[in-house]
Amino acid sequence: MLSKKWQKLLNTIDFAFQPIINIHNGEIYGVEALIRNYQKVNFSTINEIFDKAFIDGVLYQLDIALREKAINKFSKLPSNIILFYNLDNRIIFSKDFATEPTSKILQNHSLSQDNICFEISERETLNNPENISHLVHTYKNLDYKLAIDDFGTGIAGLKLLYYAEVDFLKIDRFFIQEIQKDSKKQLFLKNITNLAHLMGIKVIAEGIENKKEFELCKELNVDFIQGYLIQKPTLDIKEIKKNYNISFSNNKSKNFYSKYIEKITPINKNATLYELLNIFKQNDLDFIPVIDENNYFIGIIFEEDLKELLYSPYGLYLAQNKERKISKYIKSFNSIEISWSIEKLLESYSYLDKSINGVIITQGGKYIGFLNNHHIINFAYQKNLELAKSQNPLTKLPGNPQIEKFISNALKGEKSYYLIYFDIDNFKAFNDKYGFRKGDRVITLFSDILQKNLNYAFIGHIGGDDFFVGIKNLTFEKTFEIIKYIQEKFKKDVYEFYDKEDKEKGYIIAKDRNGELKKFDFLTVSAIILEIKKESSKENFDYSISSLKKISKQIDFPICVSLL
């Protein structure tokens, strides 16, 4: 029984809800419960409440009472969404931890385990991995969803991700704030999102405050978002909407995949074993997808694992025992989001379990259907064929068709871009003197420098000694700095391509375009930077590039810049 002090806290505080939405269509997925009004009972922070409760030995009892209060309020919202509830990891040290009453609280409000996700904070990691496993397995065994909160802020990081078999990864606001200006944050989010997806984990970006952050997260395949751009935490549940419109564009991949998806009817995880066996007996299936009450994909049941029951004369009779659940046969399985690009699908597929000869397709985590290997292999073949036709044979970089496609998208004005053209100065003279083989080595040298220093950008080879780079969502200062470094790096490295005699002279003698011998400086590289911040026509673009190329030939400074 909680003391009067803690009862007063419970009577005073309230829960605000902040929506978590599907980044691709704006549909609400869930709400996070956030404690409010704690200042009225002389607590300065939420952490202070739980620290004091831990010291008093009532942390778990208080937490259960808070859950009940949050669930009671949440129960007045539509039943097809999820409540994200923050756990204090120290509850496992409570002697009462083994008695888990949440399912009963949910039942009292006509809800189920499908309606709640417990958030484990990375800010409060437990030193012993066994403690983490104990906390996670306790709730996973009871069919609750789990999330790692504030990912990237604690010292445990990937270690916690390894031990905690969670459903969601919530990326801390630090990595989202002004991500459009920070290439390191973009690289972090991209790689963590890819890793999470390969582990079958959905990613939630926290603290989205503006459209640029939203667009970057969408581009990097984040699944769900929450933050002030969508809605501030609200005490009034009437303000929670079913859909939030933030200019959600239709994804072309969805239409592309849809016509190839097979509709294998899923089974609800609460179905009886008898129902499951009948489905396998009546259909020629190797597996059946499993969903929860809200149509979210949770795993697969293989026909092979049920052979003893399926082919036993008493199998169906034994399956009628209501105590025999299908949960023991469900195997977790990764899925592919319908909104993902072909490239993302093929990359993820290479790491996925191949035991079902295809992949499960979901939309915002909800089951859509099955895409078989035949179509995926065909996608890969078509993609490789397209790349092979376009790429430069020497550098293997994308060629002009893909460069044109990138420029066309950039000119639509949806994001800020820097389009950069590189031209190696005095290359013809070098090629004439040292030969095509050494000239090719110069080209591949510059190609390697670009790829090592601009691995987050689009890099194309126009032909000969001309290259193209497209950069999204980077500041001008950072773009300029990188280009300057590339120019200096090339100048330093290519110096070793000259023979001793030419190094001593500091120049080479070769024929100019008129066939006359003249002095040529050592190889350097010039750059034209075109900044695009608003929608522009192809005609304006072509004119600007043509003008800049003429100007760049007339000035000594190696970088020429213009705004389109």
TrEMBL record:
The keyword Cell membrane does not apply. It comes from the Bacteria. SMART domains: CBS (SM00116), EAL (SM00052), GGDEF (SM00267). InterPro entries: CBS_dom, CBS_dom_sf, Cyclic-di-GMP_PDE-like, EAL_dom, EAL_sf, GGDEF_dom, Nucleotide_cyclase, Rev_trsase/Diguanyl_cyclase. Residues 260-318 form the CBS domain. Keywords: CBS domain. This is GGDEF domain-containing protein. It comes from Caminibacter mediatlanticus TB-2. The lineage of its organism: Bacteria, Pseudomonadati, Campylobacterota, Epsilonproteobacteria, Nautiliales.
